[in-house]
């Protein structure tokens, strides 16, 4: 009798929906739905849900969909890789990398203060990157162009466009005064700061202003202890606005300090005017006070996730950048005051500034590593990348990227302004030392790559026998076997990324410390090695020249790649994939990072899933996510209420949920979080291949039943030619999971398990079909 009643309830159930979410790189709704005729049913040109034209009125014809779901495709690729202008976001790469570090903290419990300290340290590291970038712009515009080149006859004659600034040309015009030259050149770094503010504000309005569904906060036990289920996780408007105001003010204050310090150095020298000296001290005091406020704003408040925080600190957001702008204007007036006898010689004192930034960044990385280790010890996770030290390592890489970009700009501009290399003093000594450590770092990384290639070759030899066992009974084809084994071996290199990052960040920290110590001598590497053994002096000169060329080449590569992506759709697609992976997380540590597409995509999916499952005709839903789409699907499922999650089935394939996100972001996608998701949705199945370099098993704890992971799919589907595959089957790797019959089998199983009222009882184990 109960069997008949259950069958009757299932027969009267509402229609089922399969919501498809694509992965990185994007695709078209026609490809996702396998139909050339698609219709947008909700959404806009940025992100939308599509159906086949024949399924638009599916809700009015439920009898036509007995036994099969209504497919829908959520297309979100325009959030990241649709506009060619977004290729210029490559220049914001250091900001994006340091923002990732905020989310890499280890899993912990009952360590709220330590967690807040971790976030504070990452935010301070992000602030130093802003100051470093603006300081590099000041070095180029103020020191190299306005101070050194415009003050030298040989350089001015080579660059005639600077002639009106030179005291040696045109009989020394009004702009030839050193302070006025600096005031005019300050427009460049100030405009850069304004551009970063504008981009941050504009991208927030365009991509991240969508509010999640309003609901009351849930206890942590209802969301598995992961913050991704909190109501305010995907809405960080208040924090981003505060950080944007603080970083904008920091950039303007950096420009003001660069202009004012040059004039104050002359005023405090012998014979300097007493009145201007007093004004200089007052300006310095105001700059220090405003800088202290900026640091306080960055330290004062972190993210508010337990509720949907729609407040905005309007007075702070408006007044702090305005105050910094007023101080910049006063500094420009102060520097432009007439000072007889002031001439530009040598270089501006940039070494103390860049040295202090480098020292503070190294200190932050070390302290952050200690904090991360303490957090990791409270709840050790053997799968966590670098034993919980992934965040500090990534912060170190972000600082190194900022150093390469700032040093590369300064070196290339110096070479461009002074082709002879003798008319200007060049960039600060510290930047030369930092460039000189790049060649040994590259040698170390190339050696590591060679070792990894050797390990992959050994694994390929082992996989040759495994491939023969997997396709036993097939006629042997050595070339085919080698290709399959090589693909499997190369796919394992993803699991070596933590080792590569660990070696790179450690070497960068040590070599950077050596460069900082060397710069204290106020000599370049070749000058410091002068008088030693000939081969030491020659090695120092070679490292200095090669490093200078490499650091400039690195920046040119960034610019060239961005320019090519602006014109080339295929290159733009490749860069879009980088943003798909790197900009999933909200801006929590740096407001000038590229915008977070998930703050639009996750609310979109949550609204669609909730409105479908809450319909009165007991509808069922399977959300099917590939690659990065599986991460969005999981995040959206966590945002649902517990009752709605019980009406949702999850199908993931090629998913990096555990292999990448679980290892690098253990506090949010660790074993406890994924186990809670498995327990809270009605059912979850995961498909993967050993040839896939991105996707992998979910690896839930053994106590979690039924199992999530299906046995690894065969790839290729057939070794040789068969009646089902008369032509050679391709090695699919990360793509085209729907081509495997297992995909349709698992989807059908999930649909059958869903019930309109109470979720069906779960079996003790699942046997793959």
Automatic annotation (TrEMBL):
InterPro entries: AB_hydrolase_fold (IPR029058). The chain crosses the membrane at residues 117-137, 182-199, 245-266, 278-299, 320-337, 357-376, 388-410, 430-454, 497-520, 543-562. Keywords: Membrane, Transmembrane, Transmembrane helix. The keyword Metal-binding does not apply. Residues 210-229 are annotated as: Disordered. The keyword Transmembrane helix applies. This is Integral membrane protein. It comes from Streptomyces caeruleatus.
